[in-house]
Amino acid sequence: MEDSRALDDPTSAQKKILIVDDEPDVTFTIKVILTSNGYQVDAFEDAEEALTEFREGAYFLAFLDIKMPKMNGFDLYKKLLEIDKGIKVCFLTALGEFDDYYRQYKKEDLAPVWGVRHIVRKPIDNSKLLEEVSIMATTAGYG
């Protein structure tokens, strides 16, 4: 926000992260943690709005809540992949929610092929969040 020119820089996507969670306190918390660590963040509380604003190459990483109204995180992930095959995703979930969703979507081959490793549990642990961003930033492959 301090330097609007960074938004016009094509390399800025390397530091830009998308957050989609229907809980305002969660999006706010994650945004504060990430921006204070030098990342640019776009946060949405509505999956459909996030999808409307999403552009290929705009982000290197997305944090998607699994359980949201209208469109859950896996459905959003599938739609984001249609726009940008290179987007990396970490799912946000409360304890217990992930397994049920993952089993359902794995059957349809929609779940990320790297499996359950890239999950951030709620409540958000700052160090775990930053560790996950670091892992994703240095991982060349998407699966």
The percentage helix is 25-40%
SSE pattern:
EHEHEHEHEH
Q: Identify the strand order in the major beta sheet.
A: 2-1-3-4-5
Instruction: Tell me the major beta sheet.
Output: 5 strands, parallel
Describe the global form.
Answer: globular
Description:
By secondary structure, the protein is α/β, with parallel strands linked by helices. The chain has a single domain (4-138), classed as Response regulator (Rossmann fold, 3-Layer(aba) Sandwich). It is 38% helix and 18% strand. The protein has helices at residues 24-35, 47-53, 73-83, 97-107, 126-138; strands at residues 16-20, 40-44, 61-65, 88-94, 119-122. A five-stranded parallel β-sheet has the order 2-1-3-4-5, with helices on both faces. Strand 4, helix 4 and strand 5 (119-122) form a beta-alpha-beta unit. The protein is globular and about 35 Å long. Residues 1-11 have low confidence and may be disordered.
Question: How is this structure best summarized?
Answer:
With 143 residues, the chain is of the alpha/beta class. The chain is built from five helices and five strands, in the order E-H-E-H-E-H-E-H-E-H.
Index terms:
143 residues, Rossmann fold
